[in-house]
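hi! just following up on the protien thing from before. the input was this:
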Amino acid sequence: MREGGPGGRRGPLGKKAQCEAPNPRREASGGVAAMLTVMSEPIPADPGEVATLQTQLTALGYLVDDPAGIYGPSTTACVRQFQHHRGLLTDGIYGPHTHHELQRVVTMVNDPPLPHHL
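and the predicted 3d structure came back as:
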């Protein structure tokens, strides 16, 4: 995420960024209908899968405030921010494209490639 001026949020990958849940009153288009669309889409149902997702997002610098294993508004907001930062469709749904990109980024962070000169 880009700096938002003095006191602005910092981006992921080691720098904490507070994820904000969508506010239907602030959204010019979509509003509550957009939130209902997100909630009606499939999300990880297994609390263990959700907890893993939350752990991975937190390790990348996103602050997930939802209780472990619950895909609530904070987790949705963090998924949206991750999607935005990675150039994905920003819908807050942890679908196959978001899963693939998150696993790719987590792997890059955990196992960075060796320099070519070694």
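The chain has one domain: 17-36+44-107.
The longest strand covers residues 17-18.
cheers
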